[in-house]
Design a protein that fits this description.
heterotrimer, A: about 110 residues, mainly alpha, Helix Hairpins, 4 helices, elongated, C: about 625 residues, two-stranded antiparallel sheet, 25 helices, 2 strands, about 5% strand
């Protein structure tokens, strides 16, 4: 089985495949943001977008044979963690005040 | 072997991503997101980022997602109900997203370096020692600043979670 | 330096004093300021004329450069020559007499100081008009007397008819002024200057235009201006309505001075008119037609002031006839004699009205000759003068004109004779209806005070003896027109026409009073047409006033003002609101919509990156 697979599969994965995968994951994150109504799910879509970007960073870090991409990715994770903490605290407050987790209910800042 | 691994885990990542946006209950979405993070960790490994893969699993999947699950269960909101008037109509958003994806993909495909290929083991700079060295020499300032950032985040979270607000 | 500027400056001072402080001054102070200023002006005129001698050439005083722009160079000058001298005497002399009369006539009226301030302002402008040494200074006076005419006609401004009459006078005048302005533009372009001396010097060597040319056009436009100011066809319609003003105003402005401004202006432009025989014919025919038409209307009117108003229009026609046939000095002579007897007629009518406490309808008068004898005698003097009875003033001036008319074109003479007959008829009709027969009214007639009868007496003497002032010989060297031979038959015929008119009036209104009504019933439709002033006012209303007003309302107001201008202004607001309403949706409060906008922006950026083909 591995022999046939090795014949049809490419020897090495082109870099563009990683990037396209990252693009697809990012778009899925955007789709989730636009379509879902639960605040927490929206937040998780944002985390998905951040992950996709991390993948791009690491891929290019490999391509340029430098470690800076990893550092970037590292900082992104740190910031994402901090943001998750504060964001969830805000969500908790919103839930305490409005007793709803629908993102469309939080719409009083409008013209 | 690389290609097989890549395709497998890329597929898992995409499927989990789709599952994230299609599920109605947030818990299911959270677990799908954990799945995505796991697959991405393997992909990082393939790209030579051992440290990053580990950090992804420990911090992201292990801490952040736990926090998410914790909050979901605390709020106990339940599954989403169908709504009559969505804020963004489907007939606008779908074309938008499609355009976005295609544009992005097209750009990447046309601009990406043609001969670049990823083979496992070619890049060995992603070790903890390497990252630690870079972190404490070239990127010292951002490192210290992020510590302050985390401090602020902690303060903010504590203030927000109080009862009087 | 004779300080000609003092002549108009005295009345201007009177205007300022009465206008600013007159309200708080006692009546005697107002009188002193008003009459005194005109008296001073009159005395200064006498002094200047005595000092200037025979005035073979014009005496010019230049004051300052008024307009200096490119080749347009107009300075503010006053000039005196023989024509100006005659006009100055008329304006200040008759003006003085009428001011004295007005102190008596207006003594019971409200706005006393305002009346005299306007009268003084009028004197200022009229004197500026007469003294001007170029067309533009003349025009300043021209416009100014039009303004004062409006102010004084509408003196009783609480009466709507008075206000309307004032507006009508001013607007119809304006039409004439437009013609005058066009003439001035043409003069400036053709001759390069507006100064009388320069223009006439440049015109002198030009050929006489037997076919229409620039000078003919200039002269016809000048005549349009004169027609507006001097109430000739077709712009005479304001003068009968102007009788809404107080009687001294009718006497001074609409008989003696302002309406003669047109005659003066045409006479002043004689060197130009002499080069355009076509224009002269236009002037003569216009004057003649006006004379005949308004005489016929005057036959039928019952308001004593309206009869005299149409008489004024008719006599002005005579003056223009005289100018048009080349007898400029005869025309100006008639200006002078007409000033005497027409002012007297109006002031006498004012005395009658004052005696009857405001009654103006001839049908309500009668048999007054025993009750107001001084007024009666002075009015009879004026009537015989205007009827052309020799050897009084009217006969001398009218005959000079008629003889020149016959010399020019005989048919003009015959039409003029018929008009003279009609003039005699309607004036004596008024006299007989007013002073003879039984009194048909209900007031208590009383004679007027000396302040009124005094001026009447002076004017009566002037009307009778004014024919001997030798004005034609005095003015002849200036105009050098044709001198008509003296034919006794023609003179006799015109005198007999006048006598026939008087006798007919006597027949109709003293011997057989019912005859006139019988005739008017027999000729019913014709009589009504003439009584309605040939419905000219209605014609103007339908053809000019209504189209302009309705067109204005529809096109300019609804179409342009409301539709376009308001539409643009309101439309700007509506457009702003529309755009705002559209942009409002960008801030709907829905977070996911904001995210959608972000995606749109990202797509735009990606497309730009793809389009630009850069690597960044």
């Amino acid at each position: 089985m591995p022999a046939e697979l090795t014949r049809i599969l490419p020897q090495s994965v082109p870099l563009s495949w990683y990037l396209i995968l990252s693009a697809i994951l990012f778009s899925l994150g955007v789709a989730g943001f636009l379509f879902r109504r639960n605040i927490i799910t929206v937040f998780m879509s944002i985390e998905l977008m951040l992950n996709a970007v991390n993948l791009t960073f690491v891929a290019f870090s490999y391509h340029l044979k430098q470690v800076d991409g990893h550092i970037f990715s590292f900082f992104v994770m740190v910031v994402a963690a901090a943001e998750a903490a504060v964001g969830l605290a805000i969500i908790l407050t919103v839930f305490k005040n409005r007793s709803t987790l629908e993102i469309d209910e939080v719409n009083s800042m409008k013209l | 072997m690389d290609a097989l691994l890549f395709l497998t885990f890329a597929g898992i990542a995409v499927l989990c991503g789709i599952n994230l946006i299609l599920q109605t209950h947030p818990i299911s979405s959270a677990l799908s997101l954990v799945g995505v993070m796991g697959s991405l960790a393997v992909l990082y490994l393939l790209l030579g980022g051992a440290f990053i893969a580990a950090v992804q699993l420990i911090v992201y999947a292990g801490a952040v997602m736990v926090l998410f699950v914790f909050v979901i269960m605390l709020l106990n909101a339940g599954a989403e109900r169908k709504s009559s008037k969505p804020a963004v109509r489907a007939w606008i958003s779908l074309p938008l997203i499609f355009t976005f994806v295609i544009l992005l993909g097209g750009l990447i495909a046309s601009r990406a370096p043609a001969d670049a290929a990823v083979r496992f083991g070619e890049f060995t700079g992603g070790t903890a020692a390497n990252i630690g060295r870079a972190l404490f020499t070239a990127y010292l300032l951002p490192f210290e600043v992020t510590s302050i950032l985390i401090l602020i985040a902690i303060l903010g979270a504590v203030v927000l979670a109080r009862k009087e607000i | 330096m004779h300080h000609l500027w003092l002549i108009p400056a005295f009345p201007l001072a009177g205007f300022l004093i009465n206008g600013i402080a007159g309200r708080r001054m006692p009546k005697t102070a107002v009188n002193i300021a008003a009459v005194g200023s005109v008296l001073l002006s009159f005395l200064w005129v006498l002094k200047v004329l005595a000092g200037l001698g025979s005035l073979e050439d014009a005496y010019i005083e230049r004051y300052f450069t008024w307009i200096q722009s490119g080749f347009v160079n107009v300075s503010f000058d006053f000039a005196v020559d023989r024509l100006t001298a005659v006009m100055l005497m008329i304006v200040t002399g008759i003006g003085l007499i009428i001011h004295i009369y007005a102190t008596g006539y207006m003594s019971h009226e409200g706005g006393y100081y305002r009346f005299f301030s306007f009268m003084n302002l009028f004197m200022f402008f009229m004197l500026t008009l007469v003294l001007g040494a170029n067309y533009l200074v003349l025009f300043v006076g021209w416009e100014g007397v039009g303004l004062c005419s409006y102010l004084l006609i509408g003196f009783y401004f609480l009466k709507k008819s008075a206000g309307d009459a004032g507006k009508k006078a001013f607007i119809v005048n304006r039409i004439g002024d437009f013609g005058f302005s066009l003439a001035m533009f043409l003069i400036m372009v053709t001759f390069g200057s507006l100064d009388f001396g320069q223009v006439f010097a440049k015109a002198q060597p030009m050929a006489v235009e037997h076919q229409a040319g620039t000078v003919t056009l200039i002269c016809i436009l000048l005549m349009v201006g004169a027609a507006g100011k001097s109430a000739q066809l077709p712009l005479y319609v304001w003068l009968p309505d102007a009788m809404e003003g107080p009687t001294p105003v009718s006497a001074l402005i609409h008989a003696a001075t302002m309406v003669t401004a047109g005659v003066y202006m045409v006479a002043r432009s004689a060197p130009l008119f002499n080069h355009a025989p076509i224009a002269l014919d236009v002037v003569a025919v216009a004057g003649l037609l006006t004379a005949v038409m308004s005489a016929t209307i005057g036959l039928t009117q019952y308001d004593i002031k309206k009869v005299f108003a149409y008489s004024t229009v008719s006599q002005l026609g005579y003056m223009f006839l005289g100018l048009g046939v080349g007898a400029y000095s005869a025309g100006i002579f008639h200006v002078m004699t007409h000033a005497f007897f027409k002012a007297l007629l109006f002031l006498g009518a004012g005395s009658v009205i004052h005696a009857l406490s405001g009654e103006q309808d001839l049908r309500m008068m009668g048999g007054l000759r025993k009750k107001i004898p001084v007024t009666f005698i002075t009015l009879v003097c004026a009537a015989v003068a205007i009827a052309g009875v020799p050897p009084f003033s009217g006969f001398m001036s009218k005959d000079a004109i008629l003889l020149s008319a016959h010399h020019h074109h005989p048919w003009m003479y015959w039409v003029g004779v018929i008009t003279a007959g009609m003039t005699a008829f309607y004036v004596f009709r008024a006299i007989f209806m007013c002073f003879f027969g039984a009194y048909r009214g209900s007031a208590h007639p009383h004679e007027s005070p000396v302040s009124m009868t005094g001026p009447l007496a002076i004017l009566a003497l002037l009307s009778l003896g004014g024919g001997y002032f030798n004005v034609p010989q005095y003015l002849e060297p200036m105009f050098g027109g044709q001198h008509a031979p003296h034919e006794t038959t023609l003179v006799l015929i015109s005198v007999m026409a006048g006598a026939a008119g008087i006798l007919l009036a006597f027949l109709f209104y003293v011997i057989k009073p019912g005859l006139a009504d019988g005739l008017s019933r027999a000729f019913g439709p014709v009589y009504r047409l003439v009584y309605d002033k040939y419905r000219v006012d209605e014609l103007y209303d339908a053809t000019v006033v209504h189209p302009i007003r309705d067109g204005s309302r529809l096109l300019l107001w609804r179409g342009f003002d409301v539709g376009v201008i308001d539409g643009v202004v309101n439309g700007a607001g509506s457009v702003a609101r529309l755009i705002g309403g559209g942009l409002r949706h960008m801030q709907s409060g829905y977070i996911r919509r904001y995210a959608a906008w972000v995606v749109v922006g990202a797509i735009v950026l990606l497309a730009a990156a793809a389009g630009m083909g850069g690597q960044r």
